[in-house]
Description:
2 copies of one chain form a homodimer. Chain A has 2 domains: 1-75, Multidrug-efflux Transporter Regulator, Chain: A, Domain 2 (Orthogonal Bundle); 81-139. In chain A, 60% of the residues lie in helices and 3% in strands. Chain A has 6 helices and 2 strands, in the order ααββαααα. A two-stranded antiparallel sheet of chain A has the order 1-2. Chains A and B meet through helix 3, helix 4, helix 5 and helix 6 of A and helix 3, helix 4, helix 5 and helix 6 of B.
Amino acid sequence: MKIGALSTKTGLSIQAIRFYERKALLSAPERTQSNYRSYSDVALKQLMFIKQCRALDMTIEEISLVLQARANPDNSCAEVNATIDKHIADIEHRVDELKALQSTLISMRSSCTIDTKIKECGVLHKLDNIVEMQATYKK
Amino acid sequence: MKIGALSTKTGLSIQAIRFYERKALLSAPERTQSNYRSYSDVALKQLMFIKQCRALDMTIEEISLVLQARANPDNSCAEVNATIDKHIADIEHRVDELKALQSTLISMRSSCTIDTKIKECGVLHKLDNIVEMQATYKK
DNA sequence: CTTGACCCTATACTTGGTATAGAGTTTACA
DNA sequence: TGTAAACTCTATACCAAGTATAGGGTCAAG
């Protein structure tokens, strides 16, 4: 299977597949005589797993951890669980932050219900005046 | 006021201030004879406004729109309101997505309550099997 | 035999900054 | 007055998680 077929089957872009290879999430495949990547079904499964993890918003690094763990079937899965737990906590944190932002925005927005002029706009006045800053989290 | 003092007063890093200048959110200040940036209190207010907008998770582009609008006090504030409304909707969308992710993760995690071996780990099995993909939104 | 579809590598771009190198300037203190 | 510390300057590289492009090579059909 060449990269185009793999891309179609997985729904991932060709560049994304090459990107995962560079990031070592996917091991480098065999090459044809003309230097084309040639994949087996193992690669397909691996990519679907990666896609699944990405759909769960896991970072490349987190996925890398889980993949490494998965490669050693007799090891404990404590690390995998810790990775997932941390990820769940991260998402919860982000949701809380976004909700706080949203309520600030909504209350701000409610101060200008009819469109008026800039200089009288309640939204802009509030933007000028809000003192309490909301922390921003980068994930 | 030199850039260091402005950085202290605003709580923004020096690099961030120069970054906002490059992005044209902040107009280029006067320079001293030795080419140091020299700021007035107007710049301080502008930066606090920008900081406030960033704390509300607005993008540079959104802030740029709002700043442009703000520069014309007699124009309608409809655009500002539209920007804020879209931003609120974006956040709501993201919150919904993250909640969906979280419940998937939590249900997955619950399938491996005692740490066991990788090959028996319910979390990994679920990761292998979940078919329904969750859409990811990039904001 | 040439056109189109595919593949290759390498590089630049995105967002919102942060971190560095290597240089010049100003301030404090002895 | 000297000099060392603290400050500033520009330019560049880096982060995540890819996307987009340039400029080439390869393959199958008509």
